[in-house]
Specification:
mainly alpha, 14 helices, 71% helix, 0% strand, globular
């Protein structure tokens, strides 16, 4: 939501550039309208009615200068599940996830007031140096609540995935050279999230998460030779990927995943 609010402010501050030519309007006005509609929807769902009304007014006023804009609805389980709310629901018994004191400290450091526009992406919730530690806390929190609170589990799982993916994109040495430590938790988180999305009829999202999972599992191959727990996790992940790909009708990709699964089976 902060990203949409910041987009509105930026467009308003630079409206002379947006309106300088018809070509510029064609590029920027649709994005402005979409940001306004997204901000209005989210603020309304969280009872910030006056802010929602202002955002919608901006979007409606700009809409005549743009083609019809469609905004994708939020993922149903996550429509009203913020990270702060998800962290409030992590109350695991001793030993099964982040402890309450840790969760409380984490919440204060990775969340911010919804209207201050300071956190426009998950990667800004912490420093790059702390990203994998925070990702691990999110991931273990997701696992601890996923069975009984899928909305909170998904939110935490998605936040963990984004942090892991961002560190992978940056080719973080910690992730690159310690994949055996971080990879299994990342893969397990993607597996859980993909399965929940499939149960909620979110097939495209389930497939996307499973694709990421397949990539992580592939990078765990060398560790499977010496670690039985890693082999077991890889087997579980690949079995799910094959099942999901077959359900979606992508037989070629399912066959490739099945070959990878056979390779893991051959190690035992």
């Amino acid at each position: 939501m902060a990203a949409a609010d910041l987009a509105i402010r930026t467009f308003m501050n630079r409206r002379d550039e947006i309106n300088r030519s018809l070509a510029a309007k064609r590029i920027y006005v649709p994005a402005f309208v979409k940001a306004g509609l997204i901000a209005a929807d989210i603020h309304e769902r969280f009872d910030r009615h006056s802010i929602a009304a202002s955002a919608k007014k901006f979007a409606v006023q700009a809409a005549p200068a743009s083609a019809v804009i469609e905004v994708e609805p939020p993922v149903p389980p996550l429509a009203e599940m913020t990270l702060a709310r998800a962290l409030d629901r992590v109350h695991p018994p001793s030993g099964s996830g982040p402890q309450p004191a840790v969760v409380g400290q984490l919440k204060s450091s990775v969340t911010a007031p919804a209207v201050d526009c300071s956190l426009i992406s998950t990667s800004r919730r912490c420093t790059a140096g702390d990203a994998l530690v925070v990702a691990e806390l999110f991931a273990t929190g997701a696992a601890s609540v996923m069975e009984n609170d899928q909305a909170a589990g998904l939110r935490l799982g998605f936040e963990a995935h984004v942090l892991y993916a961002h560190q992978s994109e940056r080719q973080s040495p910690e992730l690159r050279y310690n994949m055996g430590e971080h990879g299994p938790l990342w893969a397990r988180t993607l597996l859980l999230c993909s399965q929940v999305c499939e149960r909620h009829d979110l097939r495209d999202l389930a497939l996307d998460l499973a694709s990421w999972m397949g990539g992580v599992v592939n990078s765990l191959g060398p560790f499977a030779l010496v670690d039985t727990e890693t082999r077991s996790l890889m087997r579980t992940c690949l079995t799910w990927h094959v099942e999901l790909l077959n359900k979606s009708g992508d037989t070629e990709a399912a066959t490739n995943a099945a070959r990878a699964l056979q390779g893991i089976e051959g190690i035992d």
